[in-house]
Amino acid sequence: MSVARTRAVALLGVDGALVEIEADMGAGLPAFVIIGLPDTSLGEARDRVRSAATNSGCALPARKLTVNLSPASLPKQGSSFDLGIAIAALAAAELVPAASVERVVHLGELGLDGRLRPVDGVLPAVLGARRAGASTVMVPTDNADEASLVPGIRVVAVPSLREAAIWHGAGLESEPVEVITRSRSEPPVPAERDLADVIGNVDAVEALVVAAAGGHHLLMVGPPGAGKSMLAARLPGLLPDLDADSALEVASIRSLAGVAVTGDLDLRPPFEAPHHTCSAAALVGGGSGVIRPGAASRATRGVLFLDEAPEFQQTVLDCLRQPLESGETVVHRSRSVARFPARFQLVAAANPCPCGQYGSRDSDCSCSPHQRRRYLGKLSGPLVDRIDLQLRVARISSSQFRASADVVPTATEQARVRVERARRRASQRLAATPWRSSSEMPGTWLRDPANRLPPADSQPIDRALETGALTMRGYDRVLRVAWTLADLDDDPVPVRRHVVRALSMRQSL
User: Which 3-state string (H, E, C) describes 249-310?
Assistant: First the structure.
């Protein structure tokens, strides 16, 4: 009997850290002890591992078995450590070669019959193992496609503990088993949502194109039926396909959220639209046990749409202030800090008042001025200050409807060509920087002497800053929109007309 070692991965947010699993088979009364800060589900691995080993034909000796998870100060959660603990125990009992076990990272949950069940978060776990220098990872068969998305690492898929022991060199005969798979429902086919469906609202359509071209946040205020939700649903169709790294990041978040990931990366940007009754944990991530990503993280590299934004609790909405600035959500717990990417485009829609009729030409508003102020006041000043484009959307009249029949509507494909061309210009301009879109450019870049606009061109926002109509944050955001407008017009730098237009798109409310 000896000490054997293998490795697994502990996930904290989207980051994976290698954990060394040490198993010691020593003298004493039969016992199975797991130390190293395990949670409840991990502590229950004792019974799963012993039953799985017995039913796989490689029963553990009736001796004292101590399993240590190192580093001991790192919190460890979930059942994905089962396979690593079982393999390390078999190696300590000299049933499999310890040298083979030590080279492999093991992930998977054990059933009592020895079969391996798929687990959530395999993709970020394999990514973490690769970054830590691991070369081989063993996963349940149902997780093989997901793990294979990570380049540069060997993936070994096994259906059971018996097959895992045989792969490591145990003297056992292979036996066919039924692979455990997760139930997968066919994803709904997204409906074709074309900008050509939008009648009128030319300014709103153009604002949508600007938002897509620069990755800018958008707030739309208008009465019911003005087309706010219709416009927001068409924004993802304007966005270009994700690159490989971004698609892998999106797939990692889906894996952590418990969504099955197939062998093909989805290159389309995600779209999340949480209901206004959601909690702060549902929006930005959290949970009392395992920390899960929220809607803001699931929308990373895509669109987060908040319909009826003032109906959300104000404390929930204000949780978005930090992600909008930093591009990540940070969830603090007493023993750990979990980080999730949250670089999304925020699109918020709001009625102008509780009854929704304020400012309508054909209806009277029944709300008092105090009710109107209180309603829109749920969108706090600091949150609105982080939104680049603030647009008022009005219902179209019958005369506008008839006039629009003679105008060729803007189709999604046409708008997407403009968006992709503008994004290429921004990417070329920022090729020597870590940023790729106008919305990511920091104030230091905007105010650098090489990029600063002449005083004659920046005069409108300089005056707005002096009078208090703009904050310094708003000043920078107007400049970013101006750069996007210049990219859409194929101009090398913004000029005064771009700055004036960008300022009007921020102050139209």
Answer: HHHHHHHHCCCCCCCCCCCCCCEECCCCCCCHHHHHCECCCCCECCHHHHCCCCEEEECCHH
In contact, 153 and 130? CB cutoff 8 Å = yes
Distance CA 245, CA 229 (A): 30
pLDDT tens-digit series, residues 428-466: 999 999 999 999 999 999 999 999 999 999 999 999 999
- Structure-token pair, residue 324: 């909008």
Model's pTM, two decimal places?
Answer: 0.91
Residue whose token pair is 């997780």: 143
Per the CB < 8 A criterion, the answer to whether 101 and 60 are in contact is no
Q: What is the C-alpha radius of gyration for the chain, rounded to an integer number of angstroms?
A: 28
CA proximity to 115, closest of 164, 42, 151, 187: 164
DSSP tag of 197: G
Q: Which amino acid is at 16?
A: G
- Say if residue 234's pLDDT is above 70: yes
How do the residues of the chain divide into helix, strand and coil, expressed in percent and rounded to 5?
A: 40, 15, 45
Quick one: tokens of 265?
């990366």
- Distance (Å, whole) CA 497 – CA 301: 30
**46 DSSP assignment:** H
How far is 482 from 465, CA to CA, in rounded Å?
A: 16
Please work out, in degrees rounded to the nearest 5, the angle formed at the alpha carbon of residue 420 by the alpha carbons of 418 and 421: 65
User: Mean pLDDT across the chain, nearest whole number?
Assistant: 91
* pLDDT given for residue 401 in this prediction: 61
Q: In 406-468, where does DSSP find H-type helix?
A: 412-429, 443-446, 455-467
- Asked if 106 and 138 count as a contact pair (C-beta separation under 8 A), the reply is yes
CA-based nearest residue to 12, from 336, 341, 323, 343: 336
Query: What's the rounded Cα separation, in Å, for the pair 177 and 175?
Result: 6
Of 176-180, 236-240, 358-362, 377-381, the least confident: 358-362
Q: Please give the pLDDT value at position 185.
A: 55
User: In this structure, what DSSP letter does residue 164 have?
Assistant: H
At CB < 8 A and 24+ separation, what contacts does 264-268 make?
A: 265/149, 267/241, 267/242, 268/236, 268/241, 268/242
The two tokens of residue 170 are 């145990």
- Alpha-carbon distance of 81 to 65, in angstroms, equals 16
DSSP class of 137: E
pLDDT in tens, 395-406: 877 666 655 555
